[in-house]
């Protein structure tokens, strides 16, 4: 088992180019995370605040250079908790969340950089702002003192991911944003080809999830 996570990480890294690997550990326990840590992985992603709070504080105390990224939706009443454990938020998607972050920062919470989640497929059930609304939310966040460093998307499952990645890159260029969080186990190659700077990979590293 120790070998297999290390081997998977070693096999992945060359195909990621300059993109940073966010190892998505949701649904996996401490033992596997430790294997990834021992293999040198330092950036991790979780999609639930509560799960991250249960799993990460102890490991973060042991591995001081770990960076934890929130890649799932954030409720405003969870903002304080999220800021206590996460170092980057990929899912900024509405003004009320900007307000909640700004309020928490003002009260002394860790100031973390954010990415705006874009609903590139305009899917009803998916979070994120419409592509044409990126500028408005970006302006709102800047005014509130919330740092936005890039954009994130999750393409529709039944469409060519590459077109969505290209759209996200074009939007980032238009708005002068550096970071592009795109690509998962099934489509990271396409994402890297379109200029991803952060790829979020779970299954290809840790195997199938229990939840
Ligand atoms: C779970 C998840 C991933 C990782 O997905 P895999 O297919 O396991 O690589 C990436 N991004 C988000 C937002 C996720 O929720």
Provide a quick synopsis of the model.
This protein has helices at 2-12, 30-38, 49-62, 79-85, 95-106, 134-144, 161-175, 188-193, 203-206, and strands at residues 20-24, 43-46, 67-70, 88-92, 114-117, 148-152, 179-181, 198-201.
Q: Could you describe the 3D structure shown?
A:
With 211 residues, this protein is α/β, with parallel strands linked by helices. It has one domain (5-206): Alanine racemase (TIM Barrel), CATH 3.20.20.10. It has helices at 2-12, 30-38, 49-62, 79-85, 95-106, 134-144, 161-175, 188-193, 203-206; strands at 20-24, 43-46, 67-70, 88-92, 114-117, 148-152, 179-181, 198-201. An eight-stranded parallel sheet has the order 7-6-5-4-3-2-1-8. β6, α7 (161-175) and β7 form a beta-alpha-beta unit. α3 (49-62) runs parallel beside α4 (79-85). The longest helix has 15 residues, at 161-175. The two termini are 20 Å apart. The mean pLDDT is 96. Residues 24, 26, 47, 71-72, 154, 184-186, 200-204 line the site of pyridoxal-5'-phosphate (PLP).
